[in-house]
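Each field is set out as follows.
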Amino acid sequence: MEESITTATEKKNEYQEKIKQVFAEVGKVVVGQEAMLNRLLIGLFTQSHVLLEGVPGIAKTLTVSTLAKVLHLDFQRIQFTPDLLPADLIGTMIYNQKQGNFEVKKGPIFANIILADEINRSPAKVQSALLESMQEKQVTIGENTFALDKPFLVLATQNPVDQEGTYPLPEAQVDRFMMKVHVNYPTKDQELEVMRRIANMNFDYTVNTVLSKEDIFAIRNEINQTTMSESLEKYIVELVYATRDPKSYGLDKAAEYIQFGVSPRASINLNLAAKAIAYFEGRDYVLPEDIKEIAPDVLNHRIILNYEAEAENVDTKEIIQTILSKVPINN
């Protein structure tokens, strides 16, 4: 019995060391953005999807493509445009003149990591095709249904600056993303390092593979076994309900700005993401700090504010911080 416990501990230590190596390998190519990479790995290890929002040129695409190389996973980048069709994404039926029949031509959705670049630039039909694939983990082409490869991770990007000619994602569809992560500008030192690297024409973009698919599935299982106390489970539910009925939590000011609170997907994803945060920190149990750390990314796209909030420049970040400061943890 002791031997099996020792073996399990050694395996866990090995996986956590490999996760550190993933950060190191991606860091060979990408300067900074550790916070974004952390969220991408949480999505990967919890079978969830991540929405990235940030201005152009801050290494969103480079981070995702480099991560795919480090994990040795199939990667496809799809540039969403107004003229994109669902068939361009999932595939279509083509006629084989030699055989005299129709054959399935699979689209780029059949990969492990999908980067949906500027997802809000494509019409609703294309967005729906992608989001259905995310939810069902399968694609139907003609009369044939195909299961998508595992692991399957969709990372979508949005440009918050240029909104002309875009098709904003409906709230019900945005809700299918585990997190909406705001990607910030690099610091001055990081930007200096970026400039030096890009100016070096011979910069080496090669990275080493760190995790296999089997490792990813094993880490998923490890995270699933991370324990969360009943008091913290109830704390998550209280946070969620505070967005739906702020007044009953003494959040009268927040109640003036919130039109709709978060869905049950928020509580599910807070639980999963907090366990992943704890695992990354080398613990097999969740602390309140883990929930508070991940809450802004899990909740920010699910809270729908009214026009009054927009008029007074109140954003969901402020609302979430107020909720976290007011809602107590009951033992």
Remarks:
- The chain has a mean pLDDT of 85.
